[in-house]
């Protein structure tokens, strides 16, 4: 009997780890992470980032078992690992939260009862958008606490980011200017509520960061497009100086035909 035949006779089940052996997991993740990190302005090595992320993912996946805790879903472990790696890499975690939802949970608790008294039975006279906003209330106190935690997380991330950078340059709006009564807009092929165009400005309202919008061009339809400068707390001077430099580089903006 040959050695191969012995193996066939004695082995009942053969298992192997397809990730990293049959499948090039590292290469696939680097391919996905590269444009993601580029959009965030990170100039490090994407391969190193992925290695860092996978190591953190593995460590987090073992913690619950070692501490005899309840099982954490694999997807949640992945989210934690990416968030932790982004934080250590100095990339603000702006994409961890839907800032529209965060603001609605904060403002509805803080301002909702006050405006209920001000409106006092005249709710039907308000603009539909304002009616919807005032009608929203968090499902539980946990939602409000989570929103407060998200803001503190953002402030911490920005503080770390601005130890390495003087400014953050980002879009002002997610689309060119839309109609005043628009109920929906399309962002990256996805239909969203018109309020979603404010996603790039809302975080700075919450963090208290100085931010400046500079008109910088027009769309093919002649609609204005702006860029946004965000700076450190109490460093408005740097933000304003950078805004002046952008205006000088842009030159005069032609007025659209009336």
What does this structure look like?
- The chain is mainly alpha-helical and 258 residues long.
- It has nine helices and five strands; from the N terminus they run αααααααβββαββα.
- It has a domain at 17-91: DNA polymerase, domain 1.
- Helices cover 50% and strands 10% of the residues.
- α2 packs across α3, α3 packs across α4 and α5 (99-119) packs across α7.
- The longest helix is centred in the N-terminal third of the chain and has 21 residues, at 46-66.
- The model has no long low-confidence stretch (mean pLDDT 79).
The share of residues in helices is 40-55%
The counted number of beta strands is 5
Mean pLDDT value = 79
Q: What does the radius of gyration come to? A: 25 Å
> Looking at the structure, what is the overall shape?
extended
- CATH topology title of the domain at 17-91: DNA polymerase, domain 1
Tell me which CATH architecture of the domain at 17-91 applies here.
Answer: Orthogonal Bundle
CATH class of the domain at 17-91: Mainly Alpha
The major β-sheet equals: 3 strands, antiparallel
- Measured between the Cα atoms of the first and last residue, the distance is 93 Å
Measured by DSSP, the beta-strand proportion falls in: 5-15%
Q: Identify the strand order in the major beta sheet.
A: 1-5-4
Low-confidence stretches: none
Q: Count helical runs.
A: 9
SSE class: mainly alpha
In N-to-C order, the SSE pattern is: HHHHHHHEEEHEEH
